[in-house]
Amino acid sequence: ETAWAEVASRFSREGIDGLPPDMGVLRIAVRAGCYADLTTAAAWRAWNVTRDDLTADDASNTRRDACWRIGRAVRAVADALQVPSARTSGANMPLFPDREHSALDVDLRTARARGVPKRYAQRAREEWDG
Q1: CA angle, residues 61, 10, 95, in degrees to nearest 5
Q2: pLDDT score of 65
Q3: Which of 32, 50, 74, 82 is deepest in the core (most CB within 10 A)?
Q4: Contact criterion met (CB below 8 Å) for 25 and 75
Q5: If you ran DSSP here, which 8-state letter would residue 114 be given?
Q6: Distances in whole angstroms, Cα of residue 101 to Cα of each of 26, 77, 78, 91
Q7: What is the pLDDT of residues 41-88, one digit of tens each?
Q8: Hey, is 50 helix, strand or coil?
């Protein structure tokens, strides 16, 4: 659910109303690697951010800069970053597979191409005259 909600939000921000019907989801398992977990209040205090800073729909420049600062700092020493989703109660995990000296090891678990959930699918807005 989180993946669909996040992708739909990204499309919406880019002016695309809904997801194309032929999208799918890849599920991976992270078997090894280091990550920073920014889903707890203790982590937010340590990084001097709030949950709202990390999840704002329309982030201010200050909030955006804080997120970029954290991402760059974590990427320098870790393979991934776990952050709260702005769309659901789930979390997102950006991976940094190209990081030098990465210990990241992932395994593809499933690939589903059954189409997007109806609530996120594109809908026709035109009416056809017959």
Answers
A1: 80
A2: 92
A3: 74
A4: no
A5: S
A6: 25, 9, 9, 25
A7: 999 999 999 999 999 877 789 988 999 999 999 999 999 999 999 889
A8: coil
